[in-house]
Write a structure and sequence with these properties.
Strand content: 25-35%
Shape: globular
Distance between the termini: 28 Å
Number of helices: 6
CATH class: Alpha Beta
Strand order of the largest sheet: 1-2-4-3
Order of helices and strands: HEHEHHEHHE
CATH superfamily: Vaccinia Virus protein VP39
Number of domains: 1
CATH topology: Rossmann fold
Structural class: alpha+beta
Helix content: 25-40%
Largest sheet: 4 strands, mixed
Length: 160
């Protein structure tokens, strides 16, 4: 979002902030060792093609470089159950399509099981209602009345 550039540039540390997109990275060819994407753009889905972004990453990576993508695991963990129940999360994929797509382009995928643990039930409820439509969150919360945590699987896709 171009409106956030000023705030990003004002942060301490002196990092150079550039404006671009996955399809148009404002860097020269073969100029970086690692590109990292976290829950953004690289949600392969039958309805849209993320290959243009992958091609652009290939352009800016140095030989031997890697794209590292962190993605939700739609198969393992309680968070995955919520994703599968959520119509709003359908854009992220609710099946194995993304995992298969990454394998098809030669990425290695590592499964990581984690958890979200909250100090209070109210904190858990607030986050789940932020992440998911209220009916989905409320149904899950009713099934797990005493919990303040949930299991969360994610996938690390590494493409070279």
């Amino acid at each position: 979002d171009v409106r956030l550039l000023g705030a990003a540039r004002a942060r301490p540390g002196g990092a150079r902030v550039l404006y671009g997109s996955a399809e148009q990275i404002p860097l020269p060819e073969a100029s970086v060792d690692v590109v990292h994407a976290r829950f953004a753009y690289f949600f392969p889905h039958p309805r849209w093609d993320v290959r243009p972004g992958l091609d652009e990453v290939a352009r800016v990576l140095r030989p031997g470089g890697a794209l590292v993508v962190i993605d939700n695991d739609t198969e393992r963990g309680q968070f995955a159950e919520l994703l599968r129940a959520s119509t709003n999360a359908a854009a992220q994929g609710q099946d194995t399509y993304a995992r298969e797509w990454w394998a098809g382009v030669g990425a290695q995928t590592r499964e990581v099981m984690s958890s979200w643990t909250f100090d209070s039930r109210a904190d858990l409820e607030a986050v789940l209602r932020l992440e998911f439509e209220r009916g989905v969150a409320d149904a899950w919360l009713a099934e797990h009345p005493a919990t303040t945590s949930l299991s969360y699987g994610y996938l690390l896709h590494v493409w070279r």
